[in-house]
Design brief:
By secondary structure, this protein is α+β, with helices and mostly antiparallel strands. The chain folds into 2 domains: 34-219, Roll (PUA domain-like); 224-277, no CATH class. It is built from 4 helices and 12 strands. The protein has helices spanning 60-67, 139-153, 223-233, 271-277, and strands spanning 34-35, 57-59, 69-70, 75-76, 84-88, 99-101, 106-110, 158-167, 170-185, 192-201, 246-250, 266-270. The strands form 3 sheets. Strands 2, 4, 5, 6, 7, 8, 9 and 10 form an 8-stranded mixed β-sheet that branches. Strands 1-3 form a two-stranded antiparallel sheet. A two-stranded antiparallel ribbon has the order 11-12. The protein is globular.
Length: 282
């Protein structure tokens, strides 16, 4: 096991020259993320993910445009001084062992690998780093410090917005979570960071309150259901066939007892038909 601090970059997107699951060499202290330009007065860049709710299906481009940053890594601590953001995937063959527990209320997120370098060690056989060689904290270190502060001092939990990759270029907004724990494991003889996040709700502009389990949390659609429904509906609105502005919708609303865990009760609708449907049972 190689415990020497190395460079890292957890990459989740297939867009903008980034290959999913592959790391590339970066400077010891990486530059700030690139900012996407937008017309003045159209959007406040310090209010993240304006308009996105859990279940919204969005493209990589739309996600970056709304956030205001061209995301180049999976972990983004306090991006632009506001909420943190993580990009996850539980698809078959995903390069990191992210997982969902307690029917979507808990996420277990795996940390960054070190970067792949010419003639360097295999990142999958090397400890995930907490510090850069210069002594500053990596993204692993920043998230771990926040989790420890919450556990040890009772400080407010770090707010983290979560986006899940369901196929190349297509993401789902999973909502707002709280970072409540971290630890390391040693699969195959190397150190790997694990972060535990708890669903906190949908309103990211005020301090979140965890909703009752029989109400808010039942809105969460498990990843396996999203994948099955996306394949069944072929990534299109079931009413008009459009491929833009999509949302995972409950056929029988959760407010009327509809299940999030049954693919037969979930469909893909565009924003127009989702709003038109409301809480009506078809």
């Amino acid at each position: 096991m190689n415990s020497q601090p190395l460079l890292f970059l957890r990459v989740m997107s297939g867009e903008a020259g980034v290959t999913a699951g592959r790391a590339s060499a970066v400077p010891a202290d990486p530059p700030a993320p690139r900012v996407c330009r937008r017309p003045a007065g159209v959007y406040n860049p310090f209010v993240l993910t304006e308009g996105f709710q859990p279940g919204d299906v969005i493209s990589y481009t739309a996600m970056c445009s709304a956030i205001g940053v061209n995301l180049q890594r999976g972990m983004n601590f306090r991006l632009r001084g506001s909420d943190s953001i993580i990009l996850m995937s539980v698809r078959p063959g995903a390069p990191y062992a992210d997982r969902v527990e307690d029917e979507g209320k808990i996420l277990i997120y795996e940390g960054h690998d070190c970067a792949r370098t010419v003639n360097g060690p295999d990142p999958k056989q090397t400890d995930q780093p907490e510090y850069f060689p210069g002594g500053s904290l990596t993204q692993n270190g920043l998230f771990a410090r926040a989790a420890r502060r919450y556990k040890e001092t009772g400080a407010p939990a770090e707010r983290v917005r979560v986006y899940e990759k369901i196929r190349s270029g297509i993401w789902v907004c999973n909502g707002l979570f709280e970072l409540i724990d971290c630890w390391t494991e040693e699969p195959a003889g190397r150190r790997v960071f694990k972060f535990k996040l708890r669903f906190a709700g949908t309103d990211g502009h005020r301090r979140p309150t965890v909703a009752p389990a029989d109400l808010e949390d039942d809105r969460l659609i498990p990843s396996w259901v999203k994948l099955e429904v996306w394949k069944r509906d072929q990534g299109r609105c079931r009413v008009c066939g459009t491929t833009s502005g999509l949302h995972f919708d409950h056929i029988i609303p959760y407010s009327k007892g509809g299940s999030s865990k049954n693919p037969a009760n979930i469909q893909i609708l565009c924003g127009r038909h989702n709003l038109a449907k409301g809480d009506n049972i078809e």
